[in-house]
Design brief:
The chain has about 270 residues and is an alpha+beta fold. It folds into three domains: about 55 residues, no CATH class; about 90 residues; about 110 residues, Immunoglobulin-like. It contains five helices and eight strands, in the order αααααββββββββ. Helix 1 crosses helix 2, helix 1 runs parallel beside helix 3 and helix 2 crosses helix 3.
């Protein structure tokens, strides 16, 4: 195998996506080839950074409590003990018949009331649990989407043809650090930012790029301020002159960009 093939295997190894035979062959080659060994170490570092960049997604904190609460509120055994009424012997038979008649009417009504209350409670718990499940499913869908973005960014970062452009922080986010990675000739272009502040309420971050035709708005996103963030540009940046992130009202801007968060010329 040539070095290009070994580079591809090294990229797969960084993603844990090679078979045992390829892993053994790569290990043998890395013992003999210093450039490939350095590349393998760099790829492991890039994948580690991108793994940390994935936004943590978790279901609501109260979900566990609600599930346990719903289970704890389920009725188990309903025990009804009739009260014994003592009466004179002469009246015992009549009272017994009356009490039996009363019980025959009351027990079904009492049981129906108990089960109606239980059913109402379970219906409410079921609605709440269904809402929690929908929230958790939405969070899982977001996590899967972000994972796909992260994997695509890894593929760009491990491609020898990729271009990296550093963006500098603006006063809106003085501690932020960001780069743009893209593969010329394709729409594979990604922003990777760290130390980006949480998006203020009622606002969004928006991606932009500039070329000879002007400044063009792209997608918007929100961020909780935790860890790093990766977002796709979705356009070929090969002929671009600059890229930036701005802070905009909800819905984003289509005309002039708002305050710059990070900016960089190509």
């Amino acid at each position: 195998m040539d070095h290009a093939t070994y580079r591809e295997i090294a990229a797969g190894a960084a993603l844990d996506d090679i078979d045992p035979d390829e892993r053994r062959e790569l290990a043998r080659h890395l013992q003999e080839c210093l450039p490939c060994r350095r590349l393998s170490d760099e790829l492991e570092g890039v994948v580690g950074e991108l793994a940390l960049a994935a936004t943590p997604m978790r279901p609501p904190d109260e979900l566990r409590g609600r599930v346990l609460g719903a289970l704890g509120s389920l009725p188990t055994t309903i025990e009804i003990r009739p009260r014994i009424v003592k009466a004179p012997a002469a009246e015992t038979a009549v009272i017994g018949r009356d009490r039996a008649s009363w019980l025959s009417r009351s027990l079904p009504l009492a049981a129906a009331a108990v089960f109606a209350i239980a059913a109402a409670g379970l219906g409410f718990q079921n609605q709440q649990l269904n809402a929690d499940v929908r929230t958790a499913n939405a969070a899982l869908s977001d996590a899967r989407s972000q994972l796909e973005v992260d994997r695509a960014a890894v593929a760009v970062a491990t491609d020898p043809r990729h271009v990296t452009v550093a963006l500098h922080a603006e006063p809106v986010a003085p501690g932020a650090a960001a780069v743009v990675m893209f593969r010329p000739g394709t729409d594979d272009a990604y922003l990777m930012a760290t130390n980006l502040p949480a998006t203020p309420d009622g606002q969004v971050y928006q991606l932009w790029f500039a070329d000879s035709g002007g400044v063009h708005p792209l997608g918007t996103f929100t961020f909780d301020g935790e860890g790093a963030f990766i977002a796709p540009f979705g356009v070929d940046l090969a002929t671009s002159a600059a890229a930036m992130v701005t802070l905009e009202p909800e819905g984003g801007a289509t005309g002039d960009p708002g305050p710059q968060v990070v900016f960089g010329e190509f």
